[in-house]
Amino acid sequence: MGIASVIEPLKEAAATYWVVISAITVSVYALFRCIYNLYFHPLAKYPGPKIAAVSNSWYAYQWITGRYPIVIAETLKQYGDVVRIGPNILVFITPKAAADTYIPSVKGLEYFPKADFISLGWPDQGITWETDPVRHHQKAKWLLPAFSAKSLKEKEWVMHKYTDIFVKSMKELGGQDKGIELKQWADWLAMDIAADLGYSREMHQLEEMRPSPYLASIWAANFFVTMHTNAKKFPLLSWMQYFSVPPSVIGSYVKAIGANRAAFMKRVEARGKTLRPDHFDKLLPAGSPMPSKADLQSLETVCLHLLLAGYEPISSSFLCIVAYSLQHEESYTRLVSEIRGAFENYEDITVEGVVQLKFLHATVMEQLRVAVVGATGQPRVSPGATVDGHYIPKGVEIQYANYAFTRDPRYFHDAYSFRPQRWLPQDHPYYDPVYAKDARDDFHPWSQGVRSCPGMVLSLQETKLIVAKVLWSFDVEMLPGQHVEYERDFRMYGMLEKPDLWDMGKWEN
Ligand code: HEM
Questions:
Q1: Within 13 A of 227's CA, how many CA atoms are on the CB side?
Q2: Nearest atom in ligand 1 to 316's CA
Q3: Nearest Cα to 403, choosing from 41, 71, 140, 7?
Q4: Ligand 1 pocket: which residues have CB below 6 Å?
Q5: 53 and 15, same structural domain?
Q6: d(CA 28, CA 36)
């Protein structure tokens, strides 16, 4: 009998022993963790699904379905106004909770810092992903002048330029029986504007009638972004996120990021030599020396955020305003007659003119309420402070359920219906007192406080200008057999996925 025949069984026994010991240790640890999370954790007193109290898997699963905001609304309805949706996560619905979370700041620094949510782990977190209040404050100071009334006025022509290309294209293509697919056109229009406004980048998507590689790749990677966000809550399993993105998408995404970098560097080189204003002018004014590597990384991410944040909500707004208005004939007729009554000629349509239109404003607000764009929960980390009467320990993640708020009958009468008139002032002919008690003042689609959207005024101007120019020019019809409903047709991943059945037709001049 050789020595190997004695050692091998011993080795096997030892391996089995360690597997069993490890399994028991992990199980005992998991059991104690469950007991701790359920009964002794500082959030143990808050109601919610039991599985959510013991593991982040409930939270992650809701995200993966794309129905996160809707499930959160159902959960709040079942459990009350504050619900525990993860071992260390609470979600609130009351307007007081939103104000307590987003408004407090100390010397311009947010009091409840942004949680690490979408951030893709780049060297710099740009503006939207920045979790450090001090660094955010610095970047916001660079950026805010780009959104002043004067600066926006100087850049208004950019919005006209692309909207006019869109209208011209519709004159050529829109009258055909097969119609046009509006969702992609809305994307091309809004991204062409955002890129040019942001850093004088001409993407030519409208003219070429096709998405840029970057636009195509961000939508192809949209689900991956959700997986990436959720993977942060499961560090040991985070490698699994990479199975959610096809290798071909990774290749085209990397190429598109390369093209973004080239466009960004071109703009850096052109500092002080550009003939027309853009947001970038304020980030790197004429005469600035070549920034350091770290500053370049920071500026590049900020530019990318200006492109993304400045494009997607506008595209969604335009698409949804057309869709929802067409589904409610009375709203569509009122909107079109207000626009056509206000401007005799197409050339008369300006930002100054469109911002006066009350029914148009009401329509934009109602679209933002019905097709909630940023229904991510906007997570923040508690510094150890009180939210709507609840002391929330330091380190707990807090979310605000802005979609649930819009559908709650305590806040909006007839909450699931598209009713622009709920936003009209009392002296307007279409004012309807049935909506008098709606919580209009508590609706903040651009959020509140120092991390609120710097593009609020720009987005109102831009959406109104596009809608006014398009509906002034055309009688729009939806091809038969289509009906859009947020609850049924939209999916919330990294960005809001809209239904792709948008074959719209019969554009008549
Ligand atoms: C209807 C249109 C828009 C809506 C509803 C909207 C909404 C929002 C919301 C809710 C936030 C805060 C997100 C959070 O706290 O996690 C935000 C941030 C931001 N938005 Fe918008 N936005 C819109 C259009 C725009 C436009 C046109 C721009 C122009 C570039 C823009 C630029 C930004 C930026 C840079 C941030 C990050 C601000 C910061 O972190 O300090 N947005 N937006």
A1: 13
A2: 1
A3: 71
A4: 127-128, 140, 305-306, 309-310, 313-314, 317, 368, 373-374, 378, 445-447, 451, 453-455, 458-459
A5: no
A6: 12
Closest atom of ligand 1 to 139 CA is 41
CB distance 267 to 279 below 8 Å: no
Which of 381, 448, 456 is closest to 89 using CA atoms? 381
Same domain as 160, residue 92: yes
Domain that residue 362 falls in: 41-508
Mean pLDDT, rounded, of the chain? 92
Q: Which CATH number is 263's domain given?
A: 1.10.630.10
Q: How far is the CA of 388 from the centre of ligand 1 (A)?
A: 25
Residues 248 and 136 in one domain: yes
| DSSP state at residue 343 | -
Question: Residue of the nearest CA to atom 3 in ligand 1?
Answer: 313
b/e for 445-476, b at 16 or more Cβ within 10 A? bbbbbbbebbbebbbbbbbbbbbbbbbbbbeb
Nearest atom in ligand 1 to 305's CA: 35
Same domain for 69 and 34: no
Could you read off the pLDDT of 455-474 as tens digits, one per residue?
A: 999 999 999 999 999 999 99
206, 228: one domain: yes
- The arithmetic mean of pLDDT across residues 334-348, rounded, is 97
What total of structural domains would you count in the chain? 2
**CB proximity list for 347: less than 8 A, separation 6 or greater:** none
> Which is the closest atom of ligand 1 to the Cα of 459?
27
DSSP string, 188-211: HHHHHHHHHHHH-----HHHHTS-
Ligand 1 test: best mutation among 453, 458, 467, most atoms within 8 Å of CB?
453
- On whether both 364 and 416 belong to a single domain, the answer is yes
Give me ligand 1 centre to Cα 446, in Å.
6
What's the rounded Cα separation, in Å, for the pair 158 and 489? Answer: 32
For ligand 1, the distance from its centroid to the CA atom of residue 132, given in whole angstroms, is 18
Residue 268's alpha-carbon distances to 107, 308, 338, in angstroms, are 31, 19, 43
Per-residue pLDDT of 205-235, as tens digits, reads 999 999 999 999 999 999 999 999 999 999 8
* Residue percentage of the chain with pLDDT more than 90: 77
Ligand 1, atom 16: nearest CA belongs to which residue? 378
Query: Could you tell me the distance, in angstroms and rounded to a whole number, from the CA of residue 337 to the centre of ligand 1?
Result: 31
Check whether residue 254 and residue 403 sit in a common domain: yes
Ligand 1: centre distance to CA 71 (Å):
24
Distance 214 CA to ligand 1 centre (A): 20
Claim to verify: residue 181 and residue 221 sit in the same structural domain: yes
